[in-house]
Amino acid sequence: MPDTRSRVARKELLTARLSPERAVASVEVHEVTLEAGQPVPLHLHPCPVVGVIRSGAIAFQIEGQPVQHLRPGEAFYEPAGIRVARFDAEGEGPATFTAFYLLASGEREVIRLLDR
Predict the structure, then answer these.
(1) 43 with 110: CB under 8 angstroms?
(2) What is the DSSP secondary-structure string of 16-85?
(3) pTM here?
(4) Closest CA to 83 of 65, 104, 109
(5) Structurally, how many domains does the chain consist of?
């Protein structure tokens, strides 16, 4: 049998520290596409979210923190219950990302839109 270990490359993208009290019972995985320039309203996630930008660019900002400009291959973390001020598509084309929603037992809600 050939040795395939030398052909596997691993690159750490993100380490997200979850609350020790947080029990993850299931993970929902969504692919999301935003149109060019599309803003996302102020929101929060009742559950932690980790994700990876697949194409395009995203302006990402946790309320009160600096804006991050994410490109394909870069990962993000949105803690549970924290207000996300921006998650907007930037540039000329659409932006696609994969989001992993870390749900507790019986939890179903993945996003909550907010009025300032």
Answers:
(1) no
(2) ----TT----EEEEEEEEE-TT----SEE-SS-EEEEEEESEEEEEETTS--EEE-TT-EEEE-TT--EE
(3) 0.88
(4) 65
(5) 1
| CATH number for 83 | 2.60.120.10
- CB of 80 within 8 A of CB of 22? yes
- Residue 89 is assigned to a structural domain of this protein: yes
Cα(81)–Cα(111) distance, rounded to whole angstroms?
Answer: 10
Is 3 among the domain residues?
Answer: no
Domain range for 96 is: 23-113
Pairing of strands 112-113, 84-90: unpaired
pLDDT tens string 83-115:
999 999 999 999 999 999 999 999 999 999 999
Tens of pLDDT along 24-82?
999 999 999 999 999 999 999 999 999 999 999 999 999 999 999 999 999 999 999 99
